[in-house]
Amino acid sequence: MDTIILGIESSCDDTSAAVIKNGILLSNVISSQAVHEAYGGVVPELASRAHQQNIVPVVHEALKRANITKEELSAVAFTRGPGLMGSLLVGVSFAKGFARSLGIPMIDVNHLNGHVLAHFIKESDDDNDKPRFPFLCLLVSGGNSQIILVKAYNDMEVLGQTIDDAAGEAIDKCSKVMGLGYPGGPIIDKLARQGNPKAYTFSKPHIPGYNYSFSGLKTSFLYSLRDWIQEDPDFIEHHKNDLAASLENTIVEILMDKLRKVAKDLNIKEVAVAGGVSANNGLRNAFHEHAKKYGWKVFIPKFSYTTDNAAMIAITGYYKFLDKDFCSIDKPAYSRVTV
Ligand code: KG4
User: What domains are there in the chain, each with its CATH number?
Assistant: First the structure.
């Protein structure tokens, strides 16, 4: 009998639905919300309203593209948290109602687990180059920066994480200060390709153990910029490529220094990266360089699976389905938690 999972993601500002049949992705529909651009960040109330408008057409489209009827579904997997509460409630409520009306199980998925398991999304039968357990995953997004030891599909341990800002958050905030727009990540990435990564030095944190910190870098960037602008009011315009390249380089170095330490201490050579910031070219290059230099086998997701998507929720749901790990209707959405 076929196992067909509908995945639903609504934790932030992307409404997404995906269908996975026997572990192979059939469709992955994402509706991103442009409404937040004018505000320089996600406005939670606007995000929930947009999810409310998008959820039915997005699910409909995912089923249509997969050529699957709702009666064929084995279960509905949904992001239960962490994320914005109002946004989560839309997907959670829809998923529960949909599963209940079809008389099929519901499967709750931790969004961060989903990002990690994005590495197991298969687009075809011969798409088999997947990480082997145990492996390390650097999860870097707008809200998280974590080093995770992945022991099995359902067994993950956070070894280190940010004690303040996330890497993506730091990039977005610095981009905002430079007046470059939102989200800053892709803009900084593009500018950095034409800049000198060694042009400027910003302070790096000295945090013991495997944890990260990015708020000091953000402050150092801000104060440096203030001094430079006092001397040249058009400083940003004249030097934005070098500023972007130096900022990106510092963030990548901070991320890789700790990751290298963990990999060495645990003697693990299979290393993956996940989350929105893994779309970054500087970070991707650093992974390839580490593969060459330290003999790592690295796993870098396709661009479309780095940012929020329901394919990663559906694949996580698929493995939970195989374990018969279902969720009861009374489980509420949650806004904060780690893997
Ligand atoms: O995983 P994600 O889509 O979800 C949230 O955590 O909300 O990550 C979004 C983050 C944002 O901070 C965005 O600026 C960053 O990922 N991002 C990037 C790039 N693309 C997205 N950061 C650096 N370079 C990129 N190319």
Answer: 4-127+305-322 (3.30.420.40), 135-300 (3.30.420.40)
